[in-house]
């Protein structure tokens, strides 16, 4: 069985604005990477994400960016020392002038008990990210503040 998942949410903003809120490091840090992001998600770059509720740096290796449509990156599976990466795809689909469907899919875990546990944890984390994105863009509310 391949370990992968997909979560999605509709955001009440134009696709360009939603894409920018994810790709732009300063905006991403307002609602998700609470410890900051070292740079924008641009194809071929390596950025560092930090979270106030998670120790250490998280390297993100950006593989593909199609402006306003898709961001693909790889990062360490399970832990920095796990020895392998998973792939994250964030897709942006316009459903109208002010509605965007954001889909996050992650795949590539080893089919082990620890791989399964990590996939569940990341599924939870990406759904939280989408909820935080929606609250921040639509209502200027930071859901992560005090959440963890």
Describe the structure.
The protein has 148 residues and is of the alpha+beta class. The protein has one domain (3-139): START domain (Alpha-D-Glucose-1,6-Bisphosphate, Chain A, domain 4, 2-Layer Sandwich), CATH 3.30.530.20. 29% of the residues lie in helices and 41% in strands. It contains three helices and seven strands. It has helices at 15-23, 25-31, 113-139, and strands at 3-11, 36-37, 46-51, 54-66, 70-76, 85-96, 99-109. A seven-stranded antiparallel β-sheet has the order 1-7-6-5-4-3-2. The model has no long low-confidence stretch (mean pLDDT 94).
Gist of the model:
The protein has helices at residues 15-23, 25-31, 113-139, and strands at residues 3-11, 36-37, 46-51, 54-66, 70-76, 85-96, 99-109. The longest helix has 27 residues, at 113-139.
CATH topology: Alpha-D-Glucose-1,6-Bisphosphate, Chain A, domain 4
Number of strands: 7
Which geometry do the CA atoms define? Answer: globular
Mean pLDDT: 94
CATH C-level category: Alpha Beta
Discrete helix count:
3
Tell me the number of structural domains.
Answer: 1
């Amino acid at each position: 069985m391949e370990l992968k998942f997909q979560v999605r949410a509709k955001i009440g903003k134009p696709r360009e604005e939603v894409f920018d809120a994810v790709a732009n490091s300063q905006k991403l840090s307002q609602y998700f990477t609470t410890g900051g992001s070292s740079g924008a998600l641009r194809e071929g770059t390596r950025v560092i994400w930090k979270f106030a509720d998670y120790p250490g740096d998280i390297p993100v290796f950006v593989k593909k960016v199609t402006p306003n449509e898709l961001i693909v990156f790889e990062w360490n599976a399970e832990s920095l020392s796990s020895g392998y990466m998973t792939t994250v795809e964030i897709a942006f689909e316009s459903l109208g002038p002010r509605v965007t469907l954001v889909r996050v899919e992650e795949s590539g875990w080893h089919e082990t008990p620890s791989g399964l546990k990590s996939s569940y944890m990341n599924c939870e984390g990406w759904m939280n990210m989408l909820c935080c994105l929606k609250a921040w863009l639509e209502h200027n509310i930071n859901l992560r503040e005090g959440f963890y």
